[in-house]
Design brief:
globular; 273 residues; five-stranded mixed beta sheet; 30% strand; 13 strands; 9 helices; alpha/beta; Nucleotidyltransferase, domain 5; 2 domains
Length: 273
């Protein structure tokens, strides 16, 4: 264990010259990597290949002495659940989350109020990350990627009263957001290793909602070459397929959630759907 931590620290110390300079910082936590992003730069750390853990990242964060105006930690490593605000009971947080998350040991349950939708988003965070980041990063807001996307998608879906199915493809997973107008009917995440597994889970959910071909709009978040097989496979069954993505998109093929990489930078500059 000590040897692994030392390897991680040595790798991180090589990144010392990459100072984080702008005022707003987003820390993205995935299952296998972490990213530190500003409007000007992004620094990625592979948590598996370089044997980096929360302790070795702590050494790097202490060096940077991050004191930005707005710091946000966005979690991708676990799913979450949405509960209407009027039905939410604080004492039942673990119960809500246990329906979608099997293992809650060593995790802290977080909540985020989504004002635009009057919903409570509930999600887990690893205890070691929570303690580390809260101790080392000032002015830190901890949130979940889906809780960030929901207000944005609600605003888009409100323009179309028919059912809208938003599909968010990312490394090893995809996320579904089903709307009726601005009303969120479903959010869920699924594992996927190829387009066949993607189609299996997607059409299983569509059947549960009695959504037949061309009775709804299917909207992919982003349009990226590494997911072209998924788009083509889906179009064979559904002709009303749309994409939402920013103008002048620069592709980062290695990003585990490429759409989200541009979400903040380009939120006001997306193509109309």
């Amino acid at each position: 264990m000590l040897a692994q931590m030392e390897i991680g620290q040595q790798f991180l110390m090589l990144q010392i010259d990459n100072k984080i300079t702008s005022d707003d910082l987003s820390i993205l936590i995935f299952k296998d990597r972490a990213a530190f992003c500003t409007l000007d730069q992004s620094l990625y750390f592979d948590l598996e290949k370089k044997n980096i853990n929360s302790q070795s990242l702590g050494t790097w964060l202490k060096y940077h002495n991050i004191k930005k105006k707005n710091n946000k930690c966005i979690l991708f490593d676990h799913t979450g659940v949405v509960v209407p605000h009027k039905l939410f009971d604080e004492t039942n947080k673990n119960l809500y989350l246990s329906l979608s998350e099997d293992d809650l040991i060593y995790k802290i349950i977080e909540t985020k109020f989504i004002k635009s939708d009057n919903q409570i988003f509930i999600f887990p965070q690893r205890r070691d990350w929570k303690l580390l980041l809260k101790d080392l990063v000032v002015n830190l807001e901890i949130t979940h990627f889906a809780a960030e996307l929901i207000p944005f998608l609600s605003k888009i879906s409100n323009k179309n009263l028919k059912k809208n199915v938003f599909i968010h493809l990312r490394k090893d997973y995809f996320d579904l957001f089903i709307y009726q107008g601005s009303q969120l009917m479903l959010y869920n995440s699924f594992t996927q290793k190829d387009e066949e597994e993607f189609l299996y889970y997607l059409f299983f959910v569509l059947e549960q909602f009695y959504l037949k071909q061309n009775q709804f709009s299917a909207i992919f978040l982003g349009k990226f070459p590494n997911y072209q097989k998924y788009y083509d496979a889906f179009k064979e069954f559904h002709t009303q397929t749309k994409f939402i993505y920013p103008e002048n998109l620069e592709i980062d093929a290695d990003h585990p959630a490429p759409f989200f990489n541009y979400f903040y930078n380009y939120e006001n500059n997306f193509r109309k759907i």
